[in-house]
Amino acid sequence: MEVTGVGDKSVEQQNEEQHEEQLKGESALAGVGKYLLHRAKPHLPPWLGVVGTGIAGEGAHLMWADSPWGAAGLTLASVALTGATWWAARGTTAQRRLHSAITVAAGSVWVTAAALSGPISHPVIDLFAMGGPVLALSWNVRMVMRRNTDPVGESSDKGLLEKVGLARTKLGNAKVEPNKVTVPYALPAGEATNDDVSKALPRIASGLDVPTTAVRYRPDPDSARKGEIVIVPNDMLKEVIWYPGPSAPGGSIAEPLVIGVYDDGRELRLTLPQAIHLLVMGVTGSGKTEAALDVMAEVLTRRDVAVWLSDPKRGQDLGEAFGACDWVVTTQDGAAVMIAAFEAVIPARQLWLGSHGYRSWEPAAAKTQDDPAHTCRQDRTACGCPGMPYLIGWFEEAANTLRAVDDDAFTGIAQEARSAGASLVVSMQRASGYQISTDTRASLPSALCMGVDERDAGFALPSEVLDAGANPGAWGNKRPGYCYLVQAGVDEELWSTPSRTFRNNPVTLEWVTREFASVRMAVDEVTATAAASVAGQIYTDRQGPTAAPATEGGPQRAAGTDDDDMTNGEPLVDPEDEGIDPEAELPEATDAPMFGAPAGTTPDDPKAAMEEILRHFEAKGQMVIQTKDVMEHCDKLGRSRPWVAAELGRLGREGRLVPAGGHKYRITPALTNA
């Protein structure tokens, strides 16, 4: 087999040509001499300076040997040249500045002495013979040491660190990856801390001519002066990536939701049971809606999760997901009721989980409880209870909701929901203290922060993440989809790493709602009962999730059809109402008790009258009322506002009404434990 080389020549032919070139070329001795001269050239300038100084001393002696003015001029020139050297070297290291000044001062003093006494007189010639080589060799040694110890010497990186106020910082060996450089550092002990590195990051970015978000640092948790500086020179997030589809179709909500990519190519993963509660924040145009589409599209493909959605936009962005959610409200009053219901289901879910041996929710809790280790029976045999899905309360544009209720409405929920297998997703443009209480914000341990105003970054991201180089204020609404994710279970180094969510659109939600209807489990009876005890007909009469497509020959429910419209084959009209003509006119009103009150009830019975008024609101599904709403009905009874206020106070003490903020009251459904 023929072995070929470069240019399709055999190895033997190449060897022959090389041997012929060697015979025709220079001798080996000449080649060695050329190599030595090449290696010596960088070290020649100091020696040439010594020779030049000797020639300058001889020339000065010939010109000013007997001139007192020459002596004075040379002395002043020596001082001026030394000072100029010290001033010119101010941008270098302290050692280099001092070395340069000493070298220039020694040379200029020798030239002055040689001009007055003669360059070959003693001890002038002795100083030249001994001092000149010493100074030249000192510069040669400095050059050799700088080459051998470049990571911790005066390299170009060291010069940059000195400019940004981190002089004497020792740099380790850089780790170079595609579009990423990681450099370990060690600050001088007792002189600087990692906080100084944090403050210098914008200046480092300026020195490297990269965006401020391209430079960040990772402090060593075991040291106050060590860490790593990470530089990502090119923005790899500029390219838009469309949502590639479900990352774990039919999987558990406990598996990560893949919603984008980091700037180094890694997947942006959000795990809601680990995140516990999530704050989504970003200014208008920052891509917050598309991030919501990504998260919702992933959630609705999982088998063991139920979603409650509050959407003041009335489906403008997330409307295609309504059919997959267990409960949807679109008004401020409805959101207030949902918050109260969410708070009520927490103890009920905790009780169920605890009775089945779960310290916190896990995917096994969503399955039928056929494991004796998770039974509610005293004899420890499998109970067979239906499972309990994970519950997500999603509050879109939460600032609108919080204006209608207390700004700390989520605080109690956020502090207790984790053990109940429930998470809050709170989305808003600005989580300032004027819109959400600091206690609530502190109870939302995870954040997906899009572009924000530079002054608002601290509302979403922890201070240590901002100190490490995270800067969502640099994006604003100019980089839609760019974000930072802070979440337990994610490496802390990624908290300050920029990422970008997938590009998405509502068509994806429509497809997910339809295709994965058979995968999603319905809400459990425990949660539904607890919610109905607070929300009443607002919850029991909800549309609920769209049913899965029916199997061949089986019943099929159309999207948007209420449960009451389906009778499973039973008559659509009660037998006692069959003879009623739906077209007949209603009889004229009489003095019968108002709102269908029981016989014997009269407007003179204030408690009964108020109860009927509340039942009227319940029948309409209006569970949040104001004093003026009650007055509209009490005018028919001739009751005054003081009477209404007194009755509302009584009902509040009895638990029939619960203050809902803003002079509003939430009705507790009748026949339930207030």
TrEMBL record:
Organism encoding this protein: Streptomyces violascens
Keywords: ATP-binding, Membrane, Nucleotide-binding, Transmembrane, Transmembrane helix
NCBIfam families the record matches: plasmid_TraB
Binding site for ATP: 282-289
Highest taxon of the lineage: Bacteria
Official protein name in the record: Sporulation protein SsgA
UniProt keyword Cell inner membrane present: no
Ranges where the record places region Disordered: 1-24, 542-584
Domain FtsK: 254-459
Biased composition (Acidic residues): 561-584
